[in-house]
Design goal:
The chain is of the alpha+beta class and 89 residues long. Helices cover 67% and strands 16% of the residues. The protein is built from three helices and two strands. A two-stranded antiparallel ribbon has the order 1-2. Strand 1 and strand 2 form a beta hairpin. The chain starts with a helix and ends with a helix.
Length: 89
Amino acid sequence: KILVDHLIDEVVYLESRMQTLKELPQTQIVTKYKSTGEIIEGVKTTAAAKQYKECSQSYMNAIRILLNVLRKTDVEAGNELLKKLEEFQ
């Protein structure tokens, strides 16, 4: 139960972090100048987008673990876990 509580706290943190990262720019236009004077523009992924992807992967792994725990517990314990998760939404 202690591990599950800790995992739920981690999920809540990741949701908050992902929401913050989602509000930041995910791409930026990069301009490069060649020695010939030619200008090349491209799109680059920002650090916020990379962090969002990492948080999202951790979030999905934590959710999978919680769902596995939920399937292995009795119905009453599973309902209690669902109620606790709903409190954080």
